[in-house]
Amino acid sequence: MRPTIKFEKEQYAQVAKLAEMGCTDEEMAAVMQVSLSTWKRMKSRDDLLVQTVAEGKANLSVKLRRMQIEMAMSGDRALLIHLGKHLLGQSDKVVVEDKPESPLAQFLPRAETIKNLPQSTDEE
C-alpha cells in the first residue's frame, strides 16, 4: 500500500494561489508534483484541500468582477453591456409576444361560407 500524501500548511497556501490564478486540476496536480489521479483521490479525502481550492477560485471571481465593475464604471461600453446582461438580466433581443387569437376567429371560416351562399328569392 502506498503512503498517503498529506499537504503541509505551505502547500495549502500554494494550492490557494494556484486556484486563485484559475489553474485547472491538471495544472495544480502538476505543480504540486502528484499525478492527476492522486490529486483527485486527495480531493476526495481531504476537505481542507477542497475548501482551499474553492476559496481560491472564489477569490479569482471576486477580483475579476471588481475589475470589470471598475472598467464599466469608467465608461467601457462593452463591459457595461456585458454586465447589464449578466448581472441585471438585460437583453438586446426584442421579444414579440403573440397576441391571443380573438374568440370570434373560430367562426370566421363559417361566416365566409355563409356570406357566399346564394341569396334567398322568397318574397313575403
Q: Overview of this structure, please?
A:
The structure is a single chain. The protein is mainly alpha-helical. The termini are far apart. It is elongated, with a radius of gyration of 33 Å. Helix content is 61%, strand content 0%. It is built from six helices and no strands.
Largest sheet: none
Low-confidence stretches: none
Portion in beta strands = under 5%
The count of helical stretches stands at: 6
Shape: elongated
- Termini separation: 112 Å
Q: What is the number of beta strands?
A: 0
Order of helices and strands: HHHHHH
Share of helical residues: 55-70%
Oligomer type: single chain
Mean pLDDT: 86
SS class: mainly alpha
Instruction: Evaluate the radius of gyration.
Output: 33 Å
Layout of strands and helices, then pairs:
Elements: H1 9-20, H2 25-31, H3 36-45, H4 47-73, H5 77-88, H6 108-115
Short description:
The chain has 124 residues and is mostly helical. The chain has six helices and no strands.
Note the main attributes of this structure.
124 residues; mainly alpha
